[in-house]
Amino acid sequence: MTVARLEFAGATGTTRLEVAVCGTVIQLTGDLDMATAPDLDRLIAGLLGDTPTVLVLDLHRLDFLGAAGITCLLGIRDRLAARHGLLVLRELPAQVRRVLEITQLLDEFDVGGSARSVHY
């Protein structure tokens, strides 16, 4: 398992996102916002390569999903779909699910059930 910690000190405090990679399952912990989304996007782009794949994002430890985070997820989904891959979001916390419902984007993602059987 590979773990990357992205941390940014901003005017409103520190934004943290921890990314744990186990095969094609990535667990996000913390905030996915304008401070962390660009680096997550680059990190995932580097992991994907050119082959079609199913990428699972386990979000059960995600505390916050901002507009830039949503844009990042949509971009990852689109890049995978362009090469016949699939992005699956698993274990959405209530606040993340609510943001995707309010923005009417929940149906834009393949939302799976439990990813707890995967060991990190």
Brief synopsis:
With 120 residues, the protein is α/β, with parallel strands linked by helices. The protein has helices spanning 37-48, 67-82, 94-102; strands at residues 2-10, 13-22, 25-32, 54-65, 86-90, 110-111.
Give short descriptive properties of this protein.
120 residues; alpha/beta; Transcription Regulator spoIIAA; six-stranded mixed beta sheet; 3 helices; 38% strand; globular; Anti-sigma factor antagonist
Overview of the molecule:
- Residues 114-120 have low confidence and may be disordered.
- The protein is an alpha/beta fold and 120 residues long.
- The chain has a 6-stranded mixed sheet, sandwiched between helices.
- Helix 1 packs parallel to helix 2 (67-82).
- It has a domain at 24-38 and 53-114: Transcription Regulator spoIIAA.
- It has helices at 37-48, 67-82, 94-102; strands at 2-10, 13-22, 25-32, 54-65, 86-90, 110-111.
- Helix 1 links the parallel strand 3 (25-32) and strand 4 (54-65).
- The protein has 3 helices and 6 strands, in the order βββαβαβαβ.
- One of its GO terms (molecular function) is anti-sigma factor antagonist activity.
- This is Anti-sigma factor antagonist.
- It comes from Actinoplanes friuliensis DSM 7358.
- Belongs to the anti-sigma-factor antagonist family.
CATH superfamily (homologous) name of the domain at 24-38 and 53-114: STAS domain
User: Which CATH-level-2 architecture of the domain at 24-38 and 53-114?
Assistant: 2-Layer Sandwich
Mean pLDDT: 82
User: What is the terminal separation in angstroms?
Assistant: 7 Å
How many strand elements? 6
Pick out the low-confidence regions: 114-120
Overall 3D form: globular
Largest sheet: 6 strands, mixed
Name of the CATH class of the domain at 24-38 and 53-114: Alpha Beta
Tally the helices: what do you get? 3
Series of secondary-structure elements, N-terminal to C-terminal: EEEHEHEHE
Helix content: 25-40%
Give the strand content. Answer: 35-45%
Question: Class by helix and strand content?
Answer: alpha/beta
